[in-house]
Amino acid sequence: MTRPTSTIGRLLALGSLLTLVGCQSAAPATKPAAAAEQFCAPLPDVIAHRGGTEKSMENTVGAFTAAGEAGVTLWELDVHFDVHGVPVVLHDDTVDRVSPMSGDISTLDVSKGIPTDDGQHIPTLDEVYRVAERFDAHVLTEIKVVPTEAQWAAVADDIDRTIGRPGVTLMSFDRSIVRTAEEEFPDTSTGLIHGAGYLSPEQIHQYGDVFSQSQTSISASRARQWHDGDVDVYAWTVDKEADWQRLSAWPVAGFITNKPIAYTEWAEKQC
């Protein structure tokens, strides 16, 4: 299974991993021969934010299966740890927003089954990585809390017995987590997630291979500076067609979106 060694943007040649629009249209016969064919420029890649949430509840097996079945094979998910240190795919500290149960995930036992509001269950990281294996997906894995040594080992075990280290990018807002990930997983790509404000290419290169930036802090000039500094920027969370259009005009490598299926359909119509 081939996977990234530097930035996700350099995987465009893998085709099956990323959604790339490179469609071609023949010009009318009345056009000069030199203009007989026109090619569309590549659009930003699509990353399914917490899975295919257009079809299923976020961060569930159903959501990631929906993304894979739609041909979207670059996913983003969030990781917390249960009471026994088992890696769990969940965004919030508590299960309250997505489950009829309540409580901090760090006090609950995922092995007993934590239902979601749509009748599924909150999955372990191992479960989702096994779905990723089926679809040959690459998983941007956001670590939400600082893991203990044992919890890092549990993440490593989940990766190694499923999709393998090249199949994962370990990411976080917390720079100390990114640093530890680089040390503990030298054969896995890592990345920094950033919110408001600006980081220079030199600052970004200190923290792994991938850079994910809030779309509200991306401008044309910043996008060009990052591009010129050999940074592939992945914008989050980009859900509106107007934003797809605006950001596509700049050197942005990919969109992390809650609407991966809709974006794919929109992208196909741009040629």
UniProtKB/TrEMBL annotation:
InterPro entries: GP_PDE_dom, PLC-like_Pdiesterase_TIM-brl. This is Glycerophosphoryl diester phosphodiesterase. The keyword Signal applies. Residues 1-26 form the signal peptide. It comes from the Bacteria. Residues 44-267 form the GP-PDE domain. It comes from Mangrovihabitans endophyticus. GO terms for biological process: lipid metabolic process.
